[in-house]
Amino acid sequence: MNTRLQMLLKTGFQVPKSESLQKAVRSFSFTEKIIFWCATAVFMLTTTLLLMGVNKAFLVSVPVHGGELIEGVVGSPRFVNPLLALSDADKDLVSLVYSGLMKATPDGTLVPNLAESYSISSDGRTYAFILKPNVTFHDGVAITASDVEFTVQKAQDPSLKSPRRANWDGVSIEKISDREIHFVLKQAYAPFLENTTLGILPKHIWKNASPDEFAFSEYNVTAIGSGPYMVKNVLRNNAGIPNQYTLKAFTDFESGEPYITTLTMRFYQNGSDLAAALDQGDVESANSLSADTVRKLVGQGKQVEESTLPRIFGVFFNQSHAPIFTRKEVRQALSMSVDKTAIVQDVLSGYATAIDSPIPPKKLGMDVKNASSTEENVASAKALLEKNGWAMNSATGVYEKKEKSPP
Q1: Do 133 and 224 have their domain in common?
Q2: How far is the first Cα of the chain from the last one, in angstroms, to the nearest whole number?
């Protein structure tokens, strides 16, 4: 048995030579040739598909550094400064040029940014942060707790009139070392951690600027921070107002160099101008467009990405002009009976979520329920009015309440 196996293993196998194969094919009948070539084609096709499948299974797409993105933004940047930023254009640039102790992920979760770690005391009043080692500003100067202390103190300065002052009012600062700093609150405040996303200013640049000079500094335009991008170039219009920023990836960014090397931001006065620039190819991407514009882009086959924003649209009852709104049950009934889902679909083209609370869903760690059905709400609104003495006028279909006039 072993001998026969050895002989079999020693047996040579040869692939037919090209001449022999051609001779064999020529000897086939017409039908046999068709079968042969069909079988060969099927074999080659299946082999190709098999190799493509193997290639797809074992290869992984890996992003590379490089490229440029041109983005359009509505508004004109004035203060590329985390303490003074007001407009969306300001805030967009600040988020790219500056970084804070913490940062928000796309799903709203807060994670350490410049901070290596943080801890919260058991009573919820003391927040301790330890900075990452070897983090620097765009000019190469190391970031220390002194920069954090300076930034927060400037935010608290009433003469600066920072829009961030309310977030830091009453917060005590304790610098422990160059890498450790504590914030002490007068009382526990769960959302405080979100305040620490405030961009950190370089003290060595801003320390000599008085509150009166702060708003006029050139560093509000050619900003120096520690964010993923640094300012490379600023173009201005005839009035001297910046209308284009060119940003370059910061190679020493604490989370790693951004993959897009150059980011150009062009600014437009209104959504119509931005939509036109997008249509003409002057910009490659845009955000916060109107629902009508988005609907047109979808119809043109453009790629549209959706992201939930913490923006609330609401209706407010003017009690001064309509005394009937001073009645709580009337306000509640109107609020309950409005078809919010229809408004979302008809006015906002479906790009919103109907809610029954002024707090956006999942904001600040709270799970807020979406608005309940209109039928349920209308029934509850009628019951609420009737409970408070209102009755349906069968002739007009309007709820009314008769009250005695004062003597």
Answers
A1: yes
A2: 124
CA 204 – CA 396 distance, rounded (Å):
72
Interior/surface letters 232-258, b for 16+ CB within 10 angstroms, e for the rest: eebeeeeeeebbebbbebbeebbeeeb
Q: Choose the final residue of a domain: 240, 269, 298.
A: 269
If DSSP codes are grouped into helix, strand and coil, which group holds residue 2? Answer: helix
Residue 131: give the domain boundaries: 67-269
Of the three residues 40, 62, 84, the one that is the final residue of a domain is 62
How many domains does the structure of the chain reveal?
Answer: 3
CA angle 4, 6, 9 (to 5 degrees): 110
CB 245 within 8 A of CB 237: no
Q: What mean pLDDT comes out for the span 372-383?
A: 78
Q: Are 90 and 79 in contact (CB under 8 A)?
A: yes
pLDDT, residue 293, reads 80
What contacts 372, CB < 8 A, 6 or more positions away? 356
Query: pLDDT at position 365, please?
Result: 47
Helix (H) or strand (E) holding 324: none
| Spatial contact of 127 and 120, defined as CB atoms under 8 Å apart | yes
Rounded CA separation 180/148 (Å): 10
Please indicate, yes or no, whether residues 252 and 378 belong to a single structural domain of this protein.
Answer: no
CA distances 90 to 93, 264, 278, 309, Å, are 5, 15, 21, 17
Strand partners, 268: 74
**Percentage, residues of the chain above pLDDT 90:** 44
Q: 351, 306 in Cβ contact below 8 A?
A: yes
Q: Tell me which of 265 and 323 has the higher pLDDT.
A: 265
What Rg, from alpha-carbon coordinates, does the chain have? 33
In sequence order, the β-bridge partners of residue 262 are: 68, 248
In a domain, residue 392? The reply is yes
CA distances from 238 to 79, 217, 231, 241, 273 (A): 19, 20, 21, 7, 18
Which ranges constitute the DSSP H helices of 180-265? 203-206, 211-214
Encoded tokens for 300: 């043109």
